[in-house]
Design goal:
5 strands, about 45% helix, about 150 residues, alpha+beta, 4 helices
């Protein structure tokens, strides 16, 4: 057997692919449990109507802060909806709930979950007391934005 290393390489690639597939499946199940758990909370019940209201709109960005959720529209220019938790008698969100809500946004706004059209970024702001405040932002990708603006112009 001159080329035994080819078989060994093939077996290693197959094992690596299987491990990746198992890891992705586990991550998807975990994501599903997080979403299911969040959907039973008062936070989700309060925020989801605002998100659903923009399901058919062209969204420019969605920001999920510990204090609020904001949806900015591309058309009409300057259109914005904001849900502030303290105004509705809720505390600021914990980092775990914040992450879960950022993931769940794509359930109510499916287009925002399209990675070819939108990008999800995690941001960290440094607070005066030295702690970090995390927040998440979905932003429209430039090519998709231009295509949608051209389509809207007619």
């Amino acid at each position: 057997m001159k080329h035994w290393w080819v078989l060994l390489l093939g077996a290693a690639l197959l094992a690596g692919s299987a491990a990746t597939w198992v890891s992705l499946a586990r991550d998807e199940r975990l994501r599903g449990r997080i979403i299911d758990r969040l959907k039973t909370t008062s936070v989700y019940a309060a925020v989801s109507p605002m998100l659903r209201r923009h399901r058919n709109d062209l969204v420019e960005s969605v920001t999920v802060h510990p204090e609020s959720v904001c949806v900015r529209l591309l058309i009409p220019v300057g259109g914005e909806s904001r849900f502030t938790f303290t105004r509705h008698g809720m505390d600021s969100l914990s980092p775990e709930t914040l992450r879960a809500l950022a993931v769940t946004v794509t359930d109510e706004l499916p287009e925002v979950g399209n990675v070819q059209h939108y990008r999800l970024r995690r941001h960290a702001d440094l607070l005066p007391d030295g702690r970090k405040s995390l927040w998440y932002e979905y932003t429209i990708r430039p090519r998709y934005r231009q295509r949608m603006l051209r389509r809207a112009a007619g």
